[in-house]
Amino acid sequence: MAQTLSAKVPPGRLQEKWDTYKNQIKLVNPANKRKHTIIVVGTGLAGGSAAATLAELGYMVKSFCIQDSARRAHSIAAQGGINAAKNYPNDGDTIWRLFYDTIKGGDYRSREANVYRLAEISNEIIDQCVAQGVPFAREYGGHLDNRSFGGAQVSRTFYARGQTGQQLLLGAYQAMSRQIAAGQISMYERREMLDLVVIDGQARGIVTRDLVTGEIERHAADAVLLCTGGYGNVYYLSTNAKNSNVTAAWRCHRRGACFANPSFTQIHPTCIPVSGDYQSKLTLMSESLRNDGRVWVPMKKGDTRAPRDIPEEERDYYLERRYPSFGNLVPRDVASRNAKYACDEGRGVGNTKLAVFLDFRDAMQRLGRARIEERYGNLFEMYERITGENPYEVPMRIYPAVHYTMGGLWVDYELMSTVPGLFVLGEANFSDHGANRLGASALMQGLADGYFVIPYTLGNYIASTPLSDVDITHDAFTQAEKDASARISKLLSVQGTKTVTEFHRDLGSIMWDNVGMSRNAECLESAIGLISSLRKEFWNNVKVPGDRTYYNKNLEFAGRMADFLELGELMARDALMRNESAGGHFREEYQTSDGEGERNDEDFAFVGAWEYRGRDSEPMLRKEDLEFENVELTTRSYK
Amino acid sequence: MSHTMTIHLRVWRQAGPEARGRFVAYTVRNVNSNMSFLELLDVLNEKLIHNGDDPIEFDYDCREGICGSCGTVIDGVAHGPQRRTAVCQLHMRHYNDGDTIVVEPWRATAFPVIRDLVTDRSAFDRIVEAGGYVSVDTGNAPDANTIIIPKEELENAFDFAACIGCGACVAACPNASASLFTGAKIAHLAGLPQGKPERKERVVAMVKQMQIEGFGDCSNHAECEAVCPKGISISAIAIMRREYIKAKISP
Q: Which chain B residues in 14-73 lie under 8 Å from chain A, judged by CB atoms?
């Protein structure tokens, strides 16, 4: 196989590539679409929108989700909003600006053509969602309202109170429900994908486990769409839902799909801090809060005074001080690192000293409590429920937490992985956010991929690829089922002394300490060793309760944990390979004198895609060179 | 800021849909008041696993009160004692040292128990499939601002769209009615211009499906509204009835 990966970006001007592509692809005759079965794994914004749209076009869709209902996929938890270049506020936004902000926000580590297409499609997404009945916020005149998010100087974020993800997901879920009723989608809930079936070099099906009966099932198709989200839970504590995991993607990786930029993770600056060792997950406080909240710590180290007793001149509004032009709305990676610095300096607040203040006092004085309540009421309530403190009266305490993974399976311009017929959409792929994702761009990407990209690119694949007749009696299915079953037996047979959760916490702390907000070669090398020995310990000492023939959450978690233990090592390898700082990937060895990350465009303007080469061999690095023909690579400055 | 306590639990254990269930008593010590209720169950489960027992199965996912996965009846109240709070957002600071807490699954014919506290709520999905959507194919939409919706109208519809589909309304209802869930979707869509063209077929089909699934009728107890973690008003049910009558009078 070639060392270099080609993204198959269409020729021509950036602004014309997507149209050129659409004009040239092969189409599937409407009557023929029903002859093709397409598997869609995951029902979040990417999977839900893809399943619904492909079913509308006439494909026979089989849709799978891990939750008890397609409506519960983790996209539902997205709070803040979705970007689009509508320029309704008339503040100077254009498709080009959205493209440019996203490329720059990603610290020039994403593919120009994909990002431009995303910006182009963004407006159609808003139209589609509104037509479905998504209740985006409105002005008094009845027109759509926008707000600002980090990394942009225009207001381009559409929002539905603090629950934009929920409303968009319900839109996609309802569109899916309509197709289920029409018989175009067969829906499989409470299913976990355990393997990808590759026949003659093409993705032709999956093996799943029914989480209620424990039965292992085979499903054949002409193409497989993986829409299974990100892998932030490798850190144990993250803002991801508890079921979010890497297993489906990792199984595809082991079957030949390259894993790109695995170390590019997003640590979100505004989360509720950890309160104790029983903590099971972290809760995000939407970035939208930084529109009106001011981030600060005391000037003095170890200041234990109540925040309201600290006078103005003894407060350090460090983001406003260091980044006067973007202030509190700097991108997430920058805000997170600066919170870490403040705490590392001993100026953290609260019991654990691992927190900074997000203060609404000034906004309340300026706008009044009612306006603040209208904008952020549900977030304030959530904060109070979790912490027992009232943010209308005392500033919020926040700290960065793992939130999103920019890395994922490598895909070309058509969203196809290195396994023909395996397409990867949404957070599960690596494609659009480079080394840092801007706020309100995840929802945009998930829906762009599902509603507006895959219908074209999948059709082109189906129309132009010879597909032999394959059914679930094929040897490859038998073997994949056997492997999956053997693995479950193995997990149950160890009967050691340490629970899956205990292993997960251990892995989480190795990852957070060594492959977290700030990394260096020494700690990354040590992480590789630590993870490798933890993995050995896991297979010799894990204790999985119960049996495989009934609903057994710990058994599910055990299988996912085994995959996280392999992924964690790859993340450390990737971070070690990348001798530069870019976006959320901050290598301590590569920084400017004032602590900003230093990119190395000469040597690292590429996507690092890792190819699996067996459990006992090191993965092979393949590269996609990033060519910037339209933007100039500059030092990202938010000052 | 935080303190520790001892909590006694009586938890419904049931091996499968056909198995006979029973309450089992547990005691958890050193419970931190900042823990969530589900974290208390996590801690207990870790203990059970170490002792070689099967852990208590319960549904959860986001643990932020938005996915609607979790839901148990706590001391007779769906989602527990704190108003407008899904059980994942219930924290132990609302309990006292030595308290005994009784934990049960949602109980309704249409929500059979899968195991312990886990129930099958797929009936809700089938109600939505019956008509809880706007029939618009991808690509058909006009510019978003061509649909003007007065703010107040939008906010009213949103109050109903906020439903998380957890099923607490059914669990709390003496008739195990799904009227609040169904009414919320009907009210959301009937309240917006996009939902109006199909409002008649929608309400008739969804109400019919609700009956097919084995949910009871609403007799205005308003228990659903009292336990709804999103505070959805029973006016949703009034809207559903009004829509239904209108649809039946002039189909």
A: 15-16, 32, 34-36, 38-39, 42-43, 46, 48-50, 52-55, 57, 59-69
Mean per-residue pLDDT over chain B, rounded: 97
- Rounded Cα distance between A424 and A228, Å, is 9
Question: Do the Cβ atoms of B63 and A72 come within 8 Å?
Answer: no
Q: Tell me, what's the ipTM?
A: 0.98
Of the residues B67, B87, B115, the one at which a domain ends: B115
Residue with tokens 């009034």: B238
Residue B245, pLDDT > 70, answer yes
pLDDT tens figures, B147-166: 999 999 999 999 999 999 99
Of B16, B91, B139, Cβ closest to residue A386:
B91
Question: Residue A578 above 90 pLDDT?
Answer: yes
CATH no. for residue B48? 3.10.20.30
Q: What angle do CA B191, B197, B198 make, to 5 degrees?
A: 90
| A451 touching chain B per CB within 8 A | yes
Q: Which of A74, A82, A281 to mutate to test the interface with B (most CBs of B within 10 A)?
A: A281
Note the pLDDT of residue A2.
Answer: 58
Q: Which two tokens stand for residue A499?
A: 């629970």
Share of chain A above pLDDT 70, in %: 100
CB B41 within 8 A of CB B26: no
**Whether residues B79 and B159 fall in one domain:** no
Please give the tally of structural domains in chain B: 2
- Domains of chain A, CATH where assigned: 269-402 (3.90.700.10), 483-624 (1.20.58.100)
pLDDT exceeds 80 at position B1: no
- Residue B47 C-alpha, separation from nearest chain A C-alpha, in angstroms: 10
b/e for A238-258, b at 16 or more Cβ within 10 A? bbbbbbbbbbbbbbbbbbbbb
Q: pLDDT band for A377, please (50, 70, 90 cuts).
A: confident
Sorted by sequence, the CB contacts under 8 Å of residue A189 that are 6+ apart come out as A65, A67, A68, A69, A70, B122, B125
Element (H or E) spanning A381, and its range?
Answer: helix A369-387
- Whether the pLDDT of residue A252 is over 60: the answer is yes
Question: Which has the closest alpha carbon to A164: A369, A373, A378?
Answer: A378
Residues 466-525 of A with CB under 8 A from B: 497, 499, 501-502
CB contact under 8 A, B138 and A163: no
Using the predicted structure, report yes or no on whether residue A629 has a pLDDT greater than 60: yes
The catalytic residue among A218, A332, A347, A578 is A332
pLDDT digits (tens, 9 = 90+) for B212-236: 999 999 999 999 999 999 999 999 9
Across the interface, do B129 and A180 touch by the CB < 8 Å criterion? yes
Given CB atoms, is A449 within the 8 Å cutoff of chain B?
no
What residues in B contact A385, CB-CB < 8 Å?
65, 82, 85, 89, 91
Nearest in space to A179 (alpha carbons), one of A5, A49, A356: A49
Look at residue A176 in the predicted model and tell me its pLDDT. Answer: 98
Is A332 considered catalytic here?
yes
Q: Same structural domain for residues B190 and B102?
A: no
Residue ranges with strand state E in A435-565? 498-499, 542-543
Same domain assignment for residues B171 and B146:
yes
- Per-residue pLDDT at A374: 83
Of the ranges A230-239, A282-291, A545-554, B238-247, which one carries the lowest mean pLDDT score?
A282-291
What is the domain range of residue B59? 4-115
